[in-house]
Give the backbone structure.
Amino acid sequence: MEKIREFFSEFVTIDDPDWNIFASKLERAAFPKKSVILEQGKKERFLSFLEKGIIRFNIPKVDYDFTFAFAFENTFFSAYDSFLTQTGSLYNIECITDCVLYRISYEDLEFVYANTSIGDRIGRKVAEDLYIKKMKRERSLLEDTAKKRYMDLLSDQPRLIKYIPQKYLASYIGIRPQSLSRIRKTI
Protein backbone atom coordinates (compact mmCIF):
# COMPACT_ATOMS: atom_id res chain seq x y z
CA MET A 1 0.00 0.00 0.00
CA GLU A 2 2.93 2.33 0.50
CA LYS A 3 3.43 2.52 -3.28
CA ILE A 4 -0.06 3.99 -3.57
CA ARG A 5 0.73 6.63 -0.98
CA GLU A 6 3.97 7.42 -2.85
CA PHE A 7 1.98 7.77 -6.10
CA PHE A 8 -0.36 10.31 -4.48
CA SER A 9 2.42 12.15 -2.64
CA GLU A 10 3.68 13.49 -5.96
CA PHE A 11 0.76 15.93 -6.09
CA VAL A 12 -0.96 16.04 -2.69
CA THR A 13 -0.05 15.70 0.96
CA ILE A 14 -2.25 13.10 2.61
CA ASP A 15 -2.49 13.40 6.37
CA ASP A 16 -2.72 10.21 8.40
CA PRO A 17 -6.47 10.39 9.16
CA ASP A 18 -7.35 10.75 5.44
CA TRP A 19 -4.87 8.06 4.46
CA ASN A 20 -6.29 5.71 7.08
CA ILE A 21 -9.82 6.18 5.71
CA PHE A 22 -8.64 5.56 2.14
CA ALA A 23 -6.39 2.62 3.07
CA SER A 24 -9.15 0.99 5.11
CA LYS A 25 -11.25 0.76 1.95
CA LEU A 26 -8.53 -0.94 -0.13
CA GLU A 27 -8.80 -4.66 -0.74
CA ARG A 28 -5.73 -6.69 -1.68
CA ALA A 29 -6.24 -9.21 -4.44
CA ALA A 30 -3.86 -11.65 -6.13
CA PHE A 31 -4.51 -13.22 -9.51
CA PRO A 32 -2.48 -15.91 -11.26
CA LYS A 33 -1.21 -15.51 -14.80
CA LYS A 34 -3.96 -15.70 -17.47
CA SER A 35 -6.74 -14.84 -15.00
CA VAL A 36 -9.56 -12.72 -16.36
CA ILE A 37 -10.07 -9.94 -13.82
CA LEU A 38 -13.04 -8.49 -15.67
CA GLU A 39 -15.01 -10.27 -18.35
CA GLN A 40 -16.66 -8.44 -21.23
CA GLY A 41 -20.28 -7.66 -20.36
CA LYS A 42 -19.70 -7.56 -16.60
CA LYS A 43 -19.78 -4.33 -14.62
CA GLU A 44 -16.46 -2.92 -13.41
CA ARG A 45 -16.80 -2.63 -9.65
CA PHE A 46 -13.25 -1.55 -8.81
CA LEU A 47 -10.58 1.01 -9.42
CA SER A 48 -7.31 -0.89 -8.98
CA PHE A 49 -3.66 -0.14 -8.32
CA LEU A 50 -1.29 -2.68 -9.82
CA GLU A 51 1.48 -3.37 -7.33
CA LYS A 52 2.99 -6.30 -9.23
CA GLY A 53 2.49 -7.73 -12.71
CA ILE A 54 1.21 -6.83 -16.14
CA ILE A 55 -2.42 -6.43 -17.21
CA ARG A 56 -3.81 -6.39 -20.74
CA PHE A 57 -7.08 -4.94 -22.00
CA ASN A 58 -8.57 -6.82 -24.94
CA ILE A 59 -11.63 -7.12 -27.08
CA PRO A 60 -12.24 -10.83 -27.67
CA LYS A 61 -13.03 -11.94 -31.20
CA VAL A 62 -13.78 -15.44 -32.46
CA ASP A 63 -10.32 -16.04 -33.92
CA TYR A 64 -8.30 -13.07 -32.65
CA ASP A 65 -8.20 -10.95 -29.49
CA PHE A 66 -7.52 -7.28 -30.09
CA THR A 67 -5.18 -5.96 -27.37
CA PHE A 68 -5.59 -2.22 -27.01
CA ALA A 69 -3.85 -1.39 -23.72
CA PHE A 70 -1.50 -2.63 -21.03
CA ALA A 71 -1.16 -1.66 -17.38
CA PHE A 72 2.18 -1.99 -15.65
CA GLU A 73 3.33 -1.94 -12.04
CA ASN A 74 2.67 1.10 -9.85
CA THR A 75 -0.23 2.43 -11.91
CA PHE A 76 -3.97 2.60 -11.54
CA PHE A 77 -6.18 0.75 -13.99
CA SER A 78 -9.83 0.00 -14.53
CA ALA A 79 -12.44 -0.50 -17.20
CA TYR A 80 -12.99 3.11 -16.31
CA ASP A 81 -15.91 3.74 -18.64
CA SER A 82 -17.76 0.80 -17.08
CA PHE A 83 -16.68 1.89 -13.59
CA LEU A 84 -18.03 5.43 -14.03
CA THR A 85 -21.31 4.41 -15.65
CA GLN A 86 -21.73 1.18 -13.66
CA THR A 87 -22.67 -0.65 -16.86
CA GLY A 88 -21.22 -3.74 -18.55
CA SER A 89 -17.68 -3.56 -19.88
CA LEU A 90 -17.05 -3.70 -23.62
CA TYR A 91 -13.76 -5.56 -23.12
CA ASN A 92 -11.83 -7.98 -20.92
CA ILE A 93 -9.08 -7.21 -18.43
CA GLU A 94 -6.64 -10.10 -18.11
CA CYS A 95 -3.41 -10.89 -16.24
CA ILE A 96 -0.40 -11.52 -18.45
CA THR A 97 1.69 -12.41 -15.40
CA ASP A 98 0.88 -13.19 -11.79
CA CYS A 99 -0.58 -9.97 -10.40
CA VAL A 100 -1.05 -8.33 -7.03
CA LEU A 101 -3.32 -5.35 -6.80
CA TYR A 102 -5.11 -3.15 -4.34
CA ARG A 103 -8.59 -2.12 -5.30
CA ILE A 104 -11.37 0.08 -4.07
CA SER A 105 -15.02 -0.40 -4.92
CA TYR A 106 -17.17 2.26 -6.54
CA GLU A 107 -19.18 2.66 -3.34
CA ASP A 108 -16.09 2.87 -1.14
CA LEU A 109 -14.50 5.44 -3.44
CA GLU A 110 -17.64 7.56 -3.15
CA PHE A 111 -17.30 7.23 0.63
CA VAL A 112 -13.68 8.45 0.44
CA TYR A 113 -14.76 11.40 -1.72
CA ALA A 114 -17.39 12.37 0.83
CA ASN A 115 -15.40 11.81 4.02
CA THR A 116 -11.86 13.03 3.37
CA SER A 117 -10.39 16.39 2.51
CA ILE A 118 -8.28 14.93 -0.31
CA GLY A 119 -10.71 12.42 -1.84
CA ASP A 120 -11.70 14.58 -4.77
CA ARG A 121 -8.09 15.50 -5.52
CA ILE A 122 -6.86 11.91 -5.56
CA GLY A 123 -9.86 10.87 -7.65
CA ARG A 124 -9.11 13.64 -10.11
CA LYS A 125 -5.43 12.63 -10.28
CA VAL A 126 -6.29 9.02 -11.08
CA ALA A 127 -8.82 10.13 -13.73
CA GLU A 128 -6.29 12.53 -15.26
CA ASP A 129 -3.64 9.81 -15.36
CA LEU A 130 -6.00 7.38 -17.11
CA TYR A 131 -7.08 10.09 -19.57
CA ILE A 132 -3.52 11.09 -20.45
CA LYS A 133 -2.61 7.45 -21.16
CA LYS A 134 -5.69 7.09 -23.36
CA MET A 135 -4.92 10.25 -25.33
CA LYS A 136 -1.27 9.27 -25.77
CA ARG A 137 -2.37 5.90 -27.13
CA GLU A 138 -4.91 7.42 -29.54
CA ARG A 139 -2.39 9.95 -30.85
CA SER A 140 0.17 7.21 -31.33
CA LEU A 141 -2.27 5.10 -33.34
CA LEU A 142 -3.01 8.05 -35.61
CA GLU A 143 0.51 9.39 -36.08
CA ASP A 144 3.17 6.77 -35.36
CA THR A 145 4.40 3.80 -37.31
CA ALA A 146 4.14 0.32 -35.84
CA LYS A 147 7.91 0.33 -35.33
CA LYS A 148 7.73 3.60 -33.38
CA ARG A 149 4.90 2.26 -31.19
CA TYR A 150 6.99 -0.83 -30.46
CA MET A 151 10.10 1.24 -29.70
CA ASP A 152 8.09 3.52 -27.36
CA LEU A 153 6.74 0.53 -25.45
CA LEU A 154 10.23 -0.92 -25.29
CA SER A 155 11.66 2.32 -23.88
CA ASP A 156 8.77 2.82 -21.44
CA GLN A 157 8.84 -0.71 -20.01
CA PRO A 158 12.12 -2.41 -21.01
CA ARG A 159 12.19 -4.70 -17.98
CA LEU A 160 8.59 -5.88 -18.33
CA ILE A 161 8.00 -6.07 -22.08
CA LYS A 162 9.82 -9.41 -22.26
CA TYR A 163 6.91 -10.98 -20.34
CA ILE A 164 4.30 -10.00 -22.91
CA PRO A 165 3.64 -12.64 -25.59
CA GLN A 166 4.49 -11.49 -29.11
CA LYS A 167 0.90 -11.94 -30.32
CA TYR A 168 -0.31 -9.41 -27.70
CA LEU A 169 2.45 -6.93 -28.53
CA ALA A 170 1.66 -7.21 -32.23
CA SER A 171 -2.05 -6.68 -31.63
CA TYR A 172 -1.31 -3.68 -29.41
CA ILE A 173 0.78 -1.94 -32.05
CA GLY A 174 -1.73 -2.81 -34.78
CA ILE A 175 0.08 -5.49 -36.76
CA ARG A 176 0.29 -9.26 -37.06
CA PRO A 177 2.94 -11.27 -35.13
CA GLN A 178 4.88 -11.97 -38.34
CA SER A 179 5.28 -8.24 -38.96
CA LEU A 180 6.47 -7.72 -35.40
CA SER A 181 9.12 -10.39 -35.96
CA ARG A 182 10.39 -8.40 -38.93
CA ILE A 183 10.48 -5.20 -36.85
CA ARG A 184 12.36 -6.91 -34.04
CA LYS A 185 14.99 -8.21 -36.49
CA THR A 186 15.75 -4.64 -37.62
CA ILE A 187 16.40 -3.42 -34.07
Notes: The chain has a mean pLDDT of 92.
